Amino acid sequence: MRQICFKETGSSMSVTCDLLDERAPQSAEFLWQLAQRKSSFDAIHAMWTGPELSCPLPASVLPDELSQNVIPTENATSYPEIGNIVLASIAEGTVEGLPPGNFFDIGIFYGEGGRMLMPFGWIEVNVCARIVASDLEHAKSCINAIRQTGACTLSIEPAG
């Protein structure tokens, strides 16, 4: 099983996740490609979706080969569970107010009550990875610390 790791230095977060290659192959591959590049992006605690660390990814911050293709619905939900890593994939021009190009968002859900109700309505996201059980409490603690301090830089890399 392929694994990735999310890291954030301010909270000392280092969380390993199993990719769900069989359930969400294209979404898992998207995360794997970012991990292979040891990518870092701005992230914030979500406002609308509940217990989520959100990493918005407009096309402008992604390599062309990742930003050009909208990922189809796979293993989708509007109610992410604790430990779910989700990927939103929104085609250019389908939601008013987003930056130019396709838009993606990685969500790390660390508590109960996750819901994908945005200001523009309900969306479905692809559940493409899961925090390993032994890292879940650490993830909760770190993301709560991030919530108190505001924005952060989230890194993604292969685990191990």
Provide an overview of this structure.
The protein has 3 helices and 11 strands; from the N terminus they run ββαββαββββββαβ. An 8-stranded antiparallel β-barrel has the order 1-2-10-6-7-4-3-11. About 20% of the residues lie in helices and about 40% in strands. The chain has helices at about 25-35, 65, 135-150, and strands at about 5-10, 15-20, 40-45, 50-60, 75, 85-90, 105-110, 115-120, 120, 125-130, 150-160. The model has no long low-confidence stretch (mean pLDDT about 95). It is an alpha+beta fold and about 160 residues long.
What brief labels describe this structure?
single chain; 160 residues; alpha+beta; Cyclophilin; eight-stranded antiparallel beta barrel; two-stranded antiparallel sheet; 3 helices; 11 strands; 19% helix
Gist?
This protein is an alpha+beta fold. It is built from 3 helices and 11 strands.
**How many structural domains in the coordinates?**
1
Calculate the mean pLDDT score and round it. Answer: 96
Largest sheet, in brief, is: 8 strands, antiparallel, barrel
Structural class: alpha+beta
Mind telling me which CATH architecture this is?
A: Beta Barrel
**In angstroms, what is the radius of gyration?**
14 Å
Taking the alpha carbons of the first and last residues, their distance comes to 12 Å
